[in-house]
Amino acid sequence: MNQPLAKQAYGKIIEMILSGALTPGDALQEAKLGELLDMSRTPVREAIKRIEAEGLATQEGRFLKIRRLRAEEVEEIFFLRQVLETHCARQAAAAVLPELDELEVRIHHLQQNGPGEEDEQRRVDDAFHRTLALATGSGMMVSTIEDLRRRTCMFDHAQVPDRFLKSCEEHLEMIAALRAGDGERAGALMARHILHARDAILEKLERFPERSRQA
């Protein structure tokens, strides 16, 4: 499977959903989307699987149909993330985390070179939050946070570009607090980081075309 093509297909389908070209209740059909995107069915199929895993589509009878991501759902996801990840950040401040050195280098690279064409921005973001969750020693904590993050990961730097550099800065601030062993500051910074991400997504949802927000 051609991974770059699957990523392109995913990005284009997400854009269609967020722009209102595809609306809640519309079926995600491989053949139709493949023709529309001028792609084979394989990358389109992979893109659809990812969209379903992220909660933007649900099976209804024979068809996989687009579902609306409601503001209330976003608020609930980020409420849970804030509670859990603030705890993780506080706990991580008491741990030895050699991964922070590599993460810091990668974040600086993103700041200087931008997100680029690959998924480096997403990989760094995932690695940062996973590192702090792992510091708790709880597999359930790690899996729960990853599931919550997956449900809004379609709102990446392409969808909320204003968050890209701000997020990098916030990650670096947290790394500094973690190195200093300041759990309270690390937790407070994480709480703020998650609220900023939530607010950016809610603002994006408010700008959706009206017909894309109808049930």
Please tell me about this protein's structure.
The structure is a single chain. The protein folds into 2 domains: 3-67, Orthogonal Bundle (Arc Repressor Mutant, subunit A); 71-206, Up-down Bundle (Four Helix Bundle (Hemerythrin (Met), subunit A)), CATH 1.20.120.530. It has helices spanning 3-19, 30-37, 41-53, 71-92, 99-113, 120-134, 139-150, 163-179, 183-206; strands at 57-60, 63-66. The chain has a two-stranded antiparallel sheet with strand order 1-2. Mean pLDDT is 89; it is low at 210-215. It contains 9 helices and 2 strands, in the order H-H-H-E-E-H-H-H-H-H-H. By secondary structure, it is mainly alpha-helical. Helices cover 67% and strands 4% of the residues.
Q: Short description, anyone?
A:
The chain is built from nine helices and two strands; from the N terminus they run H-H-H-E-E-H-H-H-H-H-H. It has 215 residues and is mainly alpha-helical.
Q: Which terms would index this structure?
A:
215 residues, elongated, two-stranded antiparallel sheet, 2 domains, Arc Repressor Mutant, subunit A, Four Helix Bundle (Hemerythrin (Met), subunit A)
SSE succession:
HHHEEHHHHHH
Question: Which class best fits the helix and strand makeup?
Answer: mainly alpha
Q: Count up the domains.
A: 2
What is the CA-based Rg, rounded? 18 Å
- Percent helix among the residues? 55-70%
Beta-strand segment tally: 2
CATH architecture of the largest domain: Up-down Bundle
CATH class of the largest domain: Mainly Alpha
Main sheet characteristics: 2 strands, antiparallel
